[in-house]
Write a structure and sequence with these properties.
The chain has 686 residues and is mainly α. It is 73% helix and 6% strand. The protein contains 29 helices and 7 strands. A 5-stranded mixed β-sheet has the order 2-3-1-6-7, with helices on both faces. β2 and β3 form a beta hairpin. α13 runs antiparallel to α14 and α18 runs antiparallel to α19. It is elongated, with a radius of gyration of 37 Å. The chain starts with a helix and ends with a strand. Keywords: Coiled coil. Pfam families: GGDEF.
């Protein structure tokens, strides 16, 4: 229609003030259309022509409108400086013209731009103004105020309030016909729901508006909707569908390759490609965002791109490159706290891998330091987000350093944080559902009153929309219940881990006495049942035995090792002895550190005549190969071994009376150990 009007001679060639004003107005309408279609250069050219026309007429309100549209065009191109310059000019022209509504709208747009750059500072400077306009009668002004409050509330972590403001911004945008803004805000709402963990609601909202975005065929709202859709699908584990959506977003936004939306789509596609295992394609996408992000307002996405490139390096086992990229990501200005948290966690894992690889330039304390830094961000800026996962990972790091007291402290903290996370998750889900329900109810009532003046059928459609929102609220509640079940499962795993630590010797990693007392009765009962079946028909046929063989091993002259080399070397020797005993025994046998330099081996499903073979194997694993100490010295280590079998001499007793008699067998093994030492050590006795 605008093109037809501009082809009309009366509009295109007339020099009367009314004709020139009409021509400038149509040029602005056409510029807005070209901007929606992604032809920014043509849109800016028409805006310049319209501005010149209004300026020649002294039409300040018209100049304000031209600057307004120009500001939105260059905003899409990522030029923050020029965008702010145009919008300040729009506000100044409106102020000079005495047009209060235009001035207020331009000022509120400047507030939104400020919130993009620094939400905290913008909240301090503009929050009072936004609150004054959030219920303005003018829908365009109301939409901007609600959008500003959405950005700042989300930035400070008040997700329930942010959701309510975003929904009200959509309603106001639709009311004044700003469908592009409504579609973009809908994508923002989906992003917020995704961050709240309500993936089903986010997917439903995107799917509901995706067809409308496709009908409009405007690159920015359609590409943004597809990009967020891809991110939601990745979090759901539907990576192939996510890649398809991201590819469509990139194809749509290829018409506007210099925009932030295009680079965001490339970032989503790179994430999906990485999840699908397409390492080269992912690297190309992340590199494109990193290179082009230098020239547009994309500070946050550059950090994500560097993080993605680090993921590519990790997939290729290139730890130094991954470390370099993660360090670069952390140095990005205005780094989002959530991304900083993710980067520190990944950096800690890379540092741990470097420590495990024996790289001397990486301190063993580095992974722990990075996790503690992540915990600080979690507590101070993200309300304890991921605290229990961080504490569990910290426990892993501390355990690898054998810092058992710190491990237990971290695990206890993880249990407390998990309980807090469960409570917060429930509260946030409840707040999100309440805000969503409250906001949608307000929208439904407003629409109801408008449609009552026109036709009754619209009221029925609005009731159906309300029912759909209630269904989504039920879905959100079910999602919260599933989340609670998952948190409970994690709590059980943490408890099981604490139980496992209580049954394990912290130095050698072998089982301890407490573990033996829990399992020995079962082994005794199995041996008794085997004896109750009668004698073996062919003891030499290779069938499994029925006895339990107890081997109590004591390292010879271990005190001299401690006295000569120190306790640290003594501990290292014990760890090496434990490793050799582990290799010399079977998986079904019980290998226990009995205390100090004593080890107990209970061989299951054995025959008494096998005790000599097993004893020599156990002694030989220490005697035959010297132990090389860290200092370079070679240590020849031997041991003495006491042997006893069960049931053995106790066999004539009744099966019932044999239960609990394994302690007597252990006493015999201990006495035999004493005999082996008395006879000269480095031998076994029974």
């Amino acid at each position: 229609m605008a093109e037809q009007l501009l082809s009309d001679p009366w509009v295109a060639q007339g020099e009367a003030p009314a004709q020139r004003e009409a021509r400038a107005r149509v040029q602005l309408a056409l510029a807005d259309t070209w901007n929606l279609r992604g032809d920014h250069e043509a849109a800016l050219r028409l805006t310049d022509e319209a501005r010149d026309g209004f300026r020649a007429l002294g039409h300040l309100a018209g100049e304000s409108d031209a600057d307004w549209i120009a500001a939105n065009i260059v905003h899409d191109l990522g030029d923050a400086r020029l965008r702010n310059q145009f919008m300040r000019s729009a506000a100044a022209h409106a102020q000079t013209a005495g047009d209060i509504e235009r001035r207020q709208t331009a000022e509120m747009a400047l507030a939104c731009f400020a919130a993009f750059e620094d939400g905290t500072a913008a909240g301090v400077a503009w929050a009072h103004t936004a609150r004054r306009y959030e219920n303005a009668a003018t829908p365009a002004l109301r939409a901007l105020a609600q959008f500003f409050l959405f950005i700042t509330e989300w930035g400070r972590g008040a997700c329930d309030a942010a959701l309510a403001h975003a929904l009200l911004s959509i309603q106001a945008s639709e009311e004044c016909g700003q469908m592009r803004r409504a579609l973009l805000d809908n994508a923002n709402v989906a992003s917020l729901l995704m961050e709240l963990g309500d993936l089903e609601a986010a997917e439903a909202r995107l799917a509901q508006r995706l067809e409308a975005a496709r009908r409009c065929a405007w690159p920015h709202p359609l590409g943004c909707t597809l990009t967020v859709f891809s991110e939601v699908l990745v979090r759901q584990g539907r990576v192939e569908e996510a890649r398809q959506k991201a590819r469509e977003a990139v194809a749509v936004l290829a018409r506007v390759p210099r925009t932030t939306h295009f680079l965001n789509a490339q970032l989503a596609l790179a994430d999906a490609e990485l999840e699908c295992g397409n390492i080269d394609a992912a690297e190309r996408g992340f590199q494109l965002v990193n290179d082009h992000g230098r020239h547009v307002e994309l500070v946050e996405d550059r950090a994500y791109a560097l993080f993605g490139l680090a993921g590519v390096a990790l997939a290729r086992q290139d730890l130094p490159r991954a470390r370099e990229l993660l360090d670069q990501a952390l140095r990005q200005p205005h780094l989002d706290p959530d991304q900083a948290l993710r980067t520190l966690i990944c950096l800690s894992r890379v540092a741990q891998a470097q420590v495990d690889a024996g790289l001397p330039e990486v301190s063993p304390e580095e992974p722990v330091r990075l996790l503690r830094q992540a915990l600080k961000i979690s507590d101070e800026q993200l309300e304890g987000a991921q605290r229990h996962e961080l504490l569990l990972e910290l426990a892993d790091r501390l355990e690898s350093q054998q810092r058992d007291k710190d491990v237990i402290t971290a695990l206890r903290g993880a249990l407390a944080a998990l309980a807090t996370d469960k409570r917060r998750a429930t509260e946030r889900q409840g707040m999100a559902m309440e805000a969503r329900h409250r906001s949608e109810t307000m929208l439904a009532e407003a629409q109801h009153h408008r449609e009552m003046a026109r036709k009754e059928a619209a009221r029925a459609r609005e009731l159906q929309a309300t029912n759909r929102e209630l269904s989504r609220a039920v879905s959100a509640l079910e999602a919260a219940q599933r989340e609670l079940m998952e948190r409970h499962r994690q709590l059980q795993q943490a408890n099981e881990r604490i139980q496992e630590l209580s049954l394990t010797d912290p130095l050698t990693g072998l089982r301890n006495r407490r573990y033996l007392t829990q399992v020995i009765d079962g082994a005794v009962a199995q041996a008794l049942r085997a004896h109750a079946c009668g004698p073996l028909t062919d003891p030499d046929a290779g069938s499994p035995g029925r006895d339990l063989l107890f081997f109590l091993l004591d390292v010879d002259h271990f005190k001299q090792i401690n006295d000569r080399y120190g306790h640290a070397v003594g501990d290292a020797v014990l760890v090496e002895i434990a490793a050799r005993l582990r290799e010399a025994t079977r998986g079904e046998d019980l290998l226990v550190r009995w205390g100090g330099e004593e080890f107990l081996i209970v061989v299951r499903h054995a025959r008494r005549d096998e005790r000599a073979v097993v004893a020599e194997r156990l002694l030989g694993c220490l005697r035959d190969t010297p132990i090389r100490l860290p200092s370079g010295d070679v240590l020849h280590c031997t041991a003495s071994l006491g042997v006893a079998s069960f049931p053995g001499l106790l066999a004539p007793l009744s099966p019932v009376s044999l239960h609990g008699r394994w302690e007597r067998v252990l006493e015999r093994a201990d006495a035999a150990l004493y005999d082996a030492k008395r006879l000269g050590r480095n031998r076994w006795a029974e």
